[in-house]
Amino acid sequence: MLLAAHYAEYAGWMIQECGDDAGALAMTELAAALAKQAGDVSFVSYTLLRRADVALYNDDGAAVVALAEEASAGSSSLRVQALATQRAAQGWALLGRAPQCRSALAWAADATAAADAEAVQTGMDSALGPGGGGQLMDVVRGWCYLDLGVPEQAVESLQTGLGRAPRSARRAQALYGIRLALAHAVTGDLRRSCEAGTVALDEASRVDSASVRHQLHTLATVVRRWPAVADIRDFRIRIDHELRPSPVNS
């Protein structure tokens, strides 16, 4: 039953990346039901974070915070606690609530360190959530700083997190790289925005990811502020090309 729950959760993530949020949520609900029958309370709580992930890419900060706090309250798992506080911080950032976001980031750093230490002590990492542990904290910080309107801090954290992500993790490289390009663009550093964005677009072309496209849409909106800059114009054309719907194979 628990194995089926893991498959359902993974399928929900894949469906989300295909751009079908309703289908992803339905599969996530199935995963929660299966995990509940299997008696895995932490897994049930984790499915709330999968729902929060869908809300994040729909820019629904209030739902992100509510789901993350519910997940945190319902599980004693250090891994779920860490992921929940990370997600809550992102939700608060979307809402523009800097004090709550920074408080959540501080809690998230402690919870993530505790979860990483537990994994080392037991010799087993959790099967829940993305890998990365502490390196993911840098990305989360940068993600939050950008939404809070402090892009210079966002650049520093995102560069650190991106540098620690495995090169083989192409979706992560694309997603975080586009976020970094966005942060550079907001600071007005167009050259570095194009450099980071071009590398990220190379990775994006190899993965068909709805979450990556969500960030690309945001980046496209920002770079349109400089229509007369040749490098940005060419960069925008590249972004628009990547955002075109993929042809359906017959």
Give me the secondary-structure topology.
Elements (H helix, E strand, L loop, with lengths): L1 H16 L3 H18 L2 H16 L4 H13 L4 H17 L3 H25 L11 H14 L3 H14 L5 H18 L2 H15 L5 H14 L6 H14 L7
Quick recap:
The chain is 78% helix and 0% strand.
Describe the structure.
The structure is a single chain. This protein has twelve helices and no strands. It is mostly helical. Helix 2 packs antiparallel against helix 3 and helix 8 packs antiparallel against helix 9. The mean pLDDT is 90.
Poorly predicted regions are: none
Number of strands: 0
Rg computed from alpha carbons, rounded to a whole number of angstroms: 18 Å
Report the mean per-residue pLDDT as an integer.
90
N-C termini distance: 36 Å
Q: How many distinct helices?
A: 12
- Estimate percent helicity: over 70%
Strand content: under 5%
Q: H/E order of the elements?
A: HHHHHHHHHHHH
Largest sheet: none
Give the overall form: globular
**Class by SSE composition:** mainly alpha
